[in-house]
């Protein structure tokens, strides 16, 4: 269940306004009390240096944390970065969110842009099975074969909502396609945000992949996260998520 606004005010009063805006966006989305674990997955390539130095990624983390209070009452998000690899660096919570991004990054060195490692790191951290099989059935109208969950896969008690932000294309596009396709059999919804002046055609391609078990991603080009109103950002974050919840439940990924 969500964390009450009174509790947010008690533990992190500076986040109360954000939490109110997040609560309103969740109410409008029609999620109807659906809980979720929330992960923030940030590009840590060299081109992102100014985003961290300016505090933009810290401010984004605070907005994601505010949204998470309306999904889950643990008052925390799981924090991942991807560069030449990917890693879960810890949690950012209502108790320690101030400067949380810098604290968790520590002395980690920036690298390249490995999307595939990020997709698999999130899956593995939450303990979802890696075993997959490819359906022998063709997709609709004779389209590509679909991946399917391995035999014995059981529905999860709650999904994972993963906000993935980047400013550039991955090191390996085929590896990214393969990894996102593989993790489509797990109860993880990927919200892709791109920053910068132009939309990213490759993220739109990932959004539209046919081989997945379920459409597990949505892409939004946001340009500059600091320039969007809180309301607009939360609406972008939640777009397509309720529809994914419904389909994930129908397909047995969540209870």
Automatic annotation (TrEMBL):
In this chain the VWFA domain maps to 37-237
In terms of superkingdom, the source organism counts as: Bacteria
PROSITE patterns hit by this protein:
VWFA
Q: Give the InterPro entries listed for this entry.
A: vWA_TerF_C, VWF_A, vWFA_dom_sf
User: What is the protein name stated in its UniProt record?
Assistant: VWA domain-containing protein
Q: Which source organism? A: Arthrobacter zhaoxinii
